[in-house]
Design brief:
Structural class: alpha/beta
Shape: globular
Largest sheet: 9 strands, mixed
Radius of gyration: 18 Å
Number of helices: 6
Number of strands: 13
Strand content: 25-35%
């Protein structure tokens, strides 16, 4: 069975994505919007976090109320563009740990290779949310998921702002147990592997390197 694709059907996400797509949007606004959309998608991606109860005293009386069960959670950005999404996730789940995974692409084969991977010691026991703004060919996301599975991780989700069908199909074929959460699914990839209509190079636009 292929992993589910959860597309955010929400006016706020649609509106913010449109501003992101606009080439005139400033680096500052782009960075803030990436974080905000990340926060909104995290809301959906954490819907199945388990709850327990605790006793609290309101100004009126004592009551038993729901609270997160304390299940261990980690967000793993794919460097460098994935860093833009971390703040939004942490605003929703402040207790999450952060791992980092860096990749470079072989110029001849175009296949990604992991050059940096720093994780919390207990990463295998945590629920993992891998984050990257774009799911284009799916190569980087596939390699990142493979790397996390090598480290013993079992419950992995992928969160992106925009996805192309090519990338979705690749993840569903290679990692059918991983659900994908995305802001929107775009039309196709161009000959350079960019999502169309997309929003350009997310890393450059987040960090102002273009």
């Amino acid at each position: 069975m292929s992993g589910k694709v959860h597309v955010m059907d929400h006016p706020l996400v649609a509106h913010k994505l449109t501003i992101l797509r606009d080439k005139e949007t400033s680096v500052k606004d782009f960075r803030e919007l990436v974080s905000e959309i990340g926060m909104l998608i995290t809301y959906e991606a954490t819907r199945d976090l388990p709850l327990t109860t605790k006793e609290v005293e309101t100004p009126i009386c004592k009551t038993t109320a729901p609270t997160l069960k304390g299940k261990k959670f980690a967000v793993v950005p794919i460097l460098r563009a994935g860093l833009g999404l971390v703040d939004g996730v942490l605003r929703m789940v402040p207790g999450a740990r952060v791992g980092h995974i860096g990749m470079f692409r072989d110029e001849e084969t175009l296949e990604p290779h992991v050059y940096f991977c720093k994780m919390p010691k207990d990463i295998a026991e945590r629920d993992i949310l891998i984050v990257d703004p774009m799911l284009a060919t799916g190569g980087s996301a596939e390699a990142a998921i493979t790397e996390m599975k090598k480290r013993g991780c079992r419950n992995i989700k992928l969160m992106v702002l925009l996805a192309a069908l090519e990338g979705i199909h690749r993840i569903q074929e290679t990692h059918p147990d991983v659900d994908i959460y995305c802001g929107a699914v775009d039309d196709h990839l161009n000959e350079h592997g960019y999502i169309v209509p997309g929003l350009g190079d997310a890393g450059d636009r987040i960090f102002g390197t273009k």
